[in-house]
């Protein structure tokens, strides 16, 4: 399939990568919507069931980059098919016979497979499109995960309530198996450059300029998650929203993230550094508005919309900049933004919790606004960073690195 880059074939490959990301995102988020059912069935507390979310995140944060490093020399098609296979087989356990300890362990494995898939999907997507469409190709993969929160999570939750939480995971396994079969037919061969070695990629992927962008990525999601982790209590206690209206606000956020992640690809192609500055300003302004006008239901709805649009709208630009600055280390660096995002989510949730303990639920929102203001400064400072001048060998790896610098 190498060299067959007709528009139809390219669209088909990108569609498969999108659906693969969507299914993996659904598997990650299902636990959030089914916590009570899982806790009751496995005879554990709700906080203990919540550890399943943490286990998946740890697998992604640590396992994703590690597995990507270990598979550096393999063709990206092999890596994608391998990660999908592990994902399907690992999700069979909770679907069929999992007890709690096994479920926690397998969630770490699933997170690692997810991180590996993200990195390989990014390299594959950017290798089959023109350089000026790099950001949009990345955005399509990212929007698969965003769409899983907006659509897959509520649908999976309803399915779990109807047929049991194991039934939802069985559905994920079935769809994942179909994606695996289609992928084996559709995905192109994307070999890594012969001159590219794991240690060489790591040297470029973990260069100070790349770490600076990863820090910005983490900071952005610390700001967002400090507030949004506690959005429901904010809505009920400050805004005065309850019942089905709370679900409407959550739906607004989910749809906004899906739209933002997809549309953000064009802004990444037009100028990723500028998009990050504008995006961080948008998040900071939205969180500030949520804090100042907390009792106003309409303004809070617009603020939630803004956080989703600007926050996830920056995701393609963050990926674009990290890959660009990594140069020859692009294949490995592709796995790092997801790790930084999940680290930011974890830190933000903790920071918001401390803020609530100290000053009430509104303190979590103002904490997010303050961190977002710091992210604006960081986005401006990192906009001056440039990729190192490196002569990359020809091949798909070089194409990915070169196209990302557009």
Provide the descriptors you would attach to this structure in a database record.
406 residues; mainly alpha; Growth Hormone, Chain: A; globular; transmembrane transporter activity; MFS_dom; MFS transporter; MFS_Efflux_Transporters
How would you explain this protein's 3D organization?
There is one protein chain. The chain is mostly helical and 406 residues long. The protein starts with 6 loop residues before the first helix and ends with a helix. Helix 1 runs antiparallel to helix 3, helix 9 packs across helix 11 (244-292) and helix 15 (336-359) runs antiparallel to helix 16 (361-382). The model is unreliable at 392-406 (pLDDT under 50). It folds into 2 domains: 7-191, MFS general substrate transporter like domains (Growth Hormone, Chain: A, Up-down Bundle), CATH 1.20.1250.20; 200-404, Growth Hormone, Chain: A (Up-down Bundle). The longest helix has 49 residues, at 244-292. It contains 17 helices and no strands. The protein has helices spanning 7-33, 35-42, 46-70, 76-96, 100-127, 134-163, 165-186, 198-205, 208-228, 231-239, 244-292, 297-313, 315-326, 330-333, 336-359, 361-382, 396-404.
